[in-house]
Each structure stands twice: as structure tokens, then as C-alpha cells.
Design a protein that fits this description.
Layout lengths: L2 H26 L4 H30 L9 H24 L10 H34 L2 H11 L5 H41 L1
Protein name: Transmembrane protein
InterPro entries: B-4DMT-like
Keywords: Membrane, Transmembrane, Transmembrane helix
């Protein structure tokens, strides 16, 4: 089973449970309907955030190089869309038989409510992923990752090759200059002696 499908199924089922609890609790305490709804949504979002954090931490540990990490944004986007549409469809179907469940028409359930669920899942999951990446990267030294990246780019680093050639040319010129000076110095001394004798 793909990662996004597993997450989509879990959060679709969890959203249906949340809506069933919402209907039962509001029927028991009608004056606290707003608080009940907000609390259930917060708890739902907290589960999404924790799962996203675990995904981000696991991915960062498996791939220290940020360029080689998985595309968790797409995974969670598909999971959120699936959870929204499926949970809306299931809740609408249950509402046909269970009148205490607060549902709207089928179109609204698979569009408006599905979009809300998808956005909630996607945003909170990505925040969790970013938090997981950040906490792992904060404890990991930057130098090993940069050194690994430099080794990967060693064959394609044009500037490194130019620097190496320039350093070699400089060393050759310095060495040649030293040899020229050492060879010419005796001749220069002999010329100076001959000039003195002519005077």
C-alpha cells in the first residue's frame, strides 16, 4: 500500500469518528456545540501534526542531504484529498440512517467539507514534517553534509578545476623563475668582474 493511501484511509476513518462524536456530544450538550467542534478539530489536527513530525524526522535521519529527501508534500496532499472526499462521502451515507450526525448534501460533503479536511491535513502535516527535519538537522553537523556534497560534485565543479590549473601554473612559474635566476647569477657576476678590469 502506498504511503499516501495509508494516511488517507487512516485520516478519513478518523474524521468520520470525529463527526460521529461531534453529533453525539452536541446532542447531549447543545449549549456547548462550538467548544465541542473546536476541541475535536484540534485533537484531529494534533494527530496529523504528530504523524507529519514522525515522517519528517524519519526522512531526515535516512537522508542527511536535503536534496535527496522524499517528496512528503505530495504524499500528504494526496492523503488529505483522499481523506476529505472519502470521509465526506461516508459521513453523508451514514447520515441517511443516523439522524444525529450533522451532514449536508452530497455535493457539499465531497467539495466544501472535503476541501476543508484536505487543507487541514496538508497544512498541519507539512508543519510537522518541517519540524521533524529542523530538529534532526539542528543536531547534525553541517560539515559532513557539505563534504559529501563536494565529493558528489567533484567531477562537475568547473571552478575547482580552474583553481587547480591556476595553482599548478603558479607553482611552475615560481619554480622556473627560481631556476632562471640561479642559472643567470654566475654570468652576471662574470660580466661585472670583466667591467671592473676594463676600467
Amino acid at each position: 500500500m502506498s504511503k499516501w493511501l495509508l494516511r488517507g484511509l487512516v485520516f478519513a476513518a478518523l474524521m468520520v469518528i470525529v463527526r460521529l462524536l461531534q453529533g453525539a456530544l452536541i446532542n447531549a450538550w447543545e449549549t456547548k456545540a462550538g467548544m465541542i467542534s473546536i476541541t475535536l478539530v484540534v485533537l484531529y489536527g494534533l494527530v496529523v501534526l504528530i504523524w507529519g513530525y514522525l515522517d519528517g524526522r524519519r526522512d531526515a535521519r535516512a537522508n542527511p542531504d536535503p536534496d535527496r529527501r522524499q517528496d512528503l508534500a505530495m504524499t500528504w496532499l494526496l492523503a488529505g484529498l483522499f481523506a476529505g472526499v472519502v470521509s465526506g462521502l461516508v459521513a453523508w451515507f451514514i447520515g441517511l440512517f443516523y439522524k444525529n450526525l450533522y451532514v449536508e448534501g452530497l455535493i457539499n460533503e465531497v467539495t466544501t467539507f472535503a476541501a476543508f479536511t484536505a487543507l487541514l491535513v496538508f497544512v498541519l502535516a507539512i508543519l510537522g514534517v518541517a519540524l521533524g527535519h529542523w530538529l534532526v538537522d539542528r543536531k547534525t553537523p553541517d560539515e559532513p553534509r557539505r563534504r559529501d556534497g563536494d565529493e558528489d560534485r567533484a567531477d562537475t565543479d568547473v571552478f575547482a578545476a580552474v583553481r587547480d590549473d591556476r595553482d599548478q601554473a603558479y607553482d611552475y612559474d615560481a619554480h622556473s623563475g627560481a631556476e632562471t635566476e640561479s642559472h643567470n647569477s654566475p654570468v652576471a657576476v662574470a660580466d661585472d668582474d670583466e667591467t671592473r678590469r676594463n676600467r
